[in-house]
Amino acid sequence: MKQFVGQNVKRKEDHRLLTGSGRFVADIRIENMVEAAILRSPYAHAKIKNIELSQAKDFEGVLDVIVAADLKGKVKPFTEFVEFTLPPQLEADIKPTIKKNPEPMLAEDKVTFVGQAVAIVLAEDRYVAEDALALIKIDYEPLPVVTDPYETIKENAPVIHPELGNNIQSHFQVKVGDTTHAFRQANHIIKTRIKTPRVSGNPLETRGVIAEYQERNQQLDVWSSTQVPFMVRSYLSKLVGLVEGNIRVVAPDVGGGFGPKCAVYPEEIMIPYLAMKYKRPVKWIEDRLEHMQSTRHSRDQVHDVEVAFRNDGTILGLKDQFLLDNGAHNSFALCCAYNSAAHLRGMYHIPNYDITGRIVLTNKTPNVPYRGAGRPEAVYVMDRIIYMIADKLNLDPVEVSMRNFVRPEQMPYETGIFYRDGANMVLENGDYVKSLQQAMKIAGYEEFRQQQEEVRKNNKNIGIGFSSYIEGTGIGPFEGAAVKVDSTGHILVGVGSSPHGQSHETTLSQICADVFGVNPEQVSVRAGDTSLLPYGVGTFASRGAVTAGSAVHGASKQLKEKFLLIAGEMLGVTIDELEMQNGKVYVKLSPSQFVTLQEIAQAAKPGPRCKVPKGIEPGASATYYFVPPTVTFSSGFHVAVVEVDKETGFVDILRYIVVHDCGRVINPKIVDGQIQGGVAQGIGGALYEEIIYDKNGQLVTGTYMDYLIPTAMEVPEVEMGHQEFLSPHNPMGIKGVGEGGAISPPAAIANAVCDAMRPLKIEINTLPISPNKLRSLIEEAENAESVLK
Amino acid sequence: MKPPKFSYLRPNSLQEALDMLAEYGDDAKIMSGGQSLIPLLNMRLSTPGYIIDIGRVEELKGIREEEDVIVIGGMTRHVDVEKSALVREKCPLLTEGITWVGHNQIRSRGTIGGSIAHADPSAELPCMLTALRGEIVIMSREEEITVSPEEFFLSYLLTSLEPNQLIKEIRFPKIKKGSGYAFEEVARRHGDFALVEVAAVVELEADGTIADAKIALGGANSVPFIPEAVEGFLIGKMPDDSILKEAATLQLGDLDPEGDIHGSKEYRRYLSGVLLERALYKAIARAREGVFV
């Protein structure tokens, strides 16, 4: 029987998306709908002294203008997302301080970052709404601004939320072994500061919300460009005080999420509330200027790291104190910060480890997880350290890496800490030595070294750099699937995890098709709708394939079992005499005796003709929730080959190689696409992207003229190699792949650039590697060299 | 990001366009390709009462040859210049430099007159026009005048164009026999505005000495900059590594680029020297190869 898992089944999503017949939030039109535009704070920190709305309210075509006072007692603020709070065993282990810092839907008495929503205009169309925004008069009294993480923790820093006492929102420490002892044993200690800047996820589709309320049955329908429709429903119910069962949240086609759409935003609460209040459908589509300011940013970590090692490159201990500058609010507990702490040692065996993380607040847009979620920052630190050790000892960095890997015979490897889900963090399997060898073989490492020497004579500087990562993927708590066969024999799958580019319709139908022995075309997958299932989580943290895939697998198997029972009843044989194949159930020894899925589905209907055995509920459906015991660890290596124009400071990526393990591959092309896309975003972080605020908290990179995202011209085609170590934590052995591509490029490219400039010994410990910055480093190194001479 | 209200006018002839300009010029903006204007409108940075869309004015479109110049109508799209065999043959500097203008999508909408009128100091066309010592033909209902780039470009995004005037055509001198050309640019990403750029045309004597050098730097000052001292220094010299190095740094002190997050003032000034040296090398090499013999 043909298996579809593992095949390059063509994407079911492509036809509609490539022919422009997808349906995104902005495509939805409802009669009598009004449009919203939002007035956003031009100040990073200011008191709101007075708001004058009369001119805007009187403007022709305006329905109303809403400010914080109008929401008082009606809509509660965000306090924290309970989905991200720490499990008790982790809390007991690291004893963190986490202060709650409620975020109002609209700024009340003061604003704390540029782009914070202050007022909403509802009008006949967006043009009128924007005209009216200009008529709102707000009297602001500017307050002192803080935008730097080191400034904000000083005693005299302006306190952003006085009820917190200071700007340190969270604090925690993770310890393994005895670093004090390890540092005493070491031959060498390197101490350095490594910084990953603030960036933005920039999905192609900005955020957007439409809400319609039907008073006749109290039904509230919401369409949102979100990664987590179930979470939107839950907070809408909690914060507005609505019956959850009356709310349906739909994520239609969603043009990318990458993490920033994995939280609930004030607009997703206010727009539905206003649709109820005014009894008219309301539409709000974020424009790109708003997006750059108010859609949540990410990263922004500074690490002060110290590493102790022996003469042969063996790492004995690692100490790190880092700050995560989270902007004006944090509702995600320790999410990214703890991910950084848990992943920093990566695939290296470092028995003595001591890391302290502090999440600090500044007058910038709040941060959320973004593709990689704390891991690119950690990997950048670790792999720069490997290269710095190699430099110090004059060893090949490949050798330093090999000397410190967790070896296959140490697997499953206990890291000595808890994962964020509260389970012991254990690297279950993999062969890092072989994986790096495979990557270097594709790169032609030996030959490259010769070529590098050759071209250096002609003043050409090429370099090679690698980076490794592990990633806990497929986090719980659960994901569900409902599988049913309709009266035509077609299989329908509903899942709680909703796609925004991941190809759920294709990959999940492959999984289901294999269980039933049918073609994926006979399976339709529906997602992104809270009416499909009672519970759902969402798509983030590289969890779609692991959790929704396993749920579909489980639900399909349950329904298959039931269908075999019904078929046995229909054919008068026992279940072990039957086999399901090609949409039919056969008697194994007498293949001419069979019933089709369609016939079985019809026989599953309640009533006098029902053939469902006694004691079992009629019906041709099954629902299954997969609850993973813990995450599963994907891993990989990235190798970048670059050329540096020493005179201009420009970096050109000549080749990019990825060797990775994501367990069972459902659809190789889709996996390759995830890697290629992730690498593109990683290249952005390495060479181009940085959200910059000036001292007054004004966003300098407010448009795509200043915030540079790599285009097809800047992203090479990734050369890939695969390894397939099946995870023991789910029935199909899947590991997640959504984020891996984005994790290692900054480290790999920075290392490659340092390698290209090696005779000069420059260290690139901040990103992005802009030509101006690189040229300055080269110039400094050249000057230092000439002084020595 | 929606523009405030404006009236949209679409003339079908040059005369009609000039009449509209005469009537509404003070409160009007001409739209030719819209590649810069539409973002300005949407961000409400420009709020004209009237938009005069000259997309249907056929007299302003096309490329033709005169004795020493290639004449390009103001409403001619970048892509038409990029693909023109005539331009490639007679003024290949344009063919080379124009590929640095944005991306395909932008070049298929943007126009030559639009780019010149927008007067971004780091845009490619103003720089090339200045290097070539070309001319801009300006029209109003009353008159037609011809001006040099130095008369036309006044400062950042500011030209001598009066509200009742439009750009009829631009005159790009052909590259002569015995000359070589080069266009060098660096931008953060392909298609971005240049950090700095250099356009150069160098003519050699039969013995290899430099007969003439015409150079312009873009992005280094508020308007395209002609390094006259460098040009004068080069004429009559036999070019070699040290001469070109000296030439490239001779006038860096006269450059006053704006610094921003993509490159500091110092970096851009330094880069100007690197690119000027590279441009001179390339132009001289091409002149020696007799690409235009």
From TrEMBL, chain A:
The protein's Enzyme Commission number: 1.2.7.4
Keywords (A to Z) from UniProt: Molybdenum, Oxidoreductase
Record's signal peptide: none
GO molecular function: anaerobic carbon-monoxide dehydrogenase activity; iron ion binding
Key word Cell membrane present: no
Domain (Aldehyde oxidase/xanthine dehydrogenase a/b hammerhead) ranges: 19-144
Keyword Nuclease: no
Name listed for the protein in its UniProt record: Carbon-monoxide dehydrogenase large subunit
UniProtKB/TrEMBL annotation, chain B:
Superkingdom of this protein's organism: Bacteria
One Gene Ontology term of the molecular function aspect: oxidoreductase activity
SUPFAM superfamilies assigned: CO dehydrogenase flavoprotein C-terminal domain-like, FAD-binding/transporter-associated domain-like
Keywords on record: FAD, Flavoprotein, Oxidoreductase
Domain FAD-binding PCMH-type: residue ranges: 1-177
One Pfam family, short name: CO_deh_flav_C
Protein name, as recorded: CO/xanthine dehydrogenase FAD-binding subunit
